[in-house]
Design goal:
Helices cover about 0% and strands about 65% of the residues. The protein has about 130 residues and is mostly beta strands. The N and C termini lie far apart (about 45 Å).
Length: about 130
């Protein structure tokens, strides 16, 4: 059964050559000049799965504090495409970028789901510059 090893928010993230690179990772607060505005956001992490498990469906959902929209993206990660590293386990790296609207100050949520279960919910607070 696939499990989420870790996940974080970043200013930039990419997977290349079997490595995850991130810049400005693991933030919990964003300061912007004014509202409304836009934010470029990356969600990155690693899933641990059995090599012969079959595809791992990953869903990313972004929710603003005012409920004005919901952004949802679905990914399919393929364990069979990776080399097992220990006891038939593979590490499936992912990085997904999106530009989101920040309509208002407040607490934004990013839900990361494996299958139909929310595995983690990341939150960040957006505030206006003083």
């Amino acid at each position: 059964m696939a499990q989420l090893d870790y996940v974080f928010l970043a200013d930039y993230a990419a997977v290349t050559g079997g490595k995850l690179t991130a810049i400005g990772a693991s933030f919990t607060k964003v300061v912007v000049p004014s509202f409304p505005t836009q934010l470029s956001l990356y969600i990155a992490g690693r899933i641990r799965a059995d090599h012969n498990e079959g595809n791992c469906p990953l869903t990313l959902t972004i929710l603003p504090p005012d409920g004005s929209y919901e952004i949802r993206g679905d990914l399919e990660l393929e364990p069979e495409a990776e080399e097992p590293y220990k006891e038939n386990k593979v590490g499936l790296l992912f990085a997904a970028g999106v530009v989101i609207s920040l309509p208002t100050e407040g607490l934004y949520a990013v839900q990361v789901s494996l299958g139909n279960e929310v595995a983690r919910e990341l939150k960040f607070f957006a505030e206006e510059e003083a």
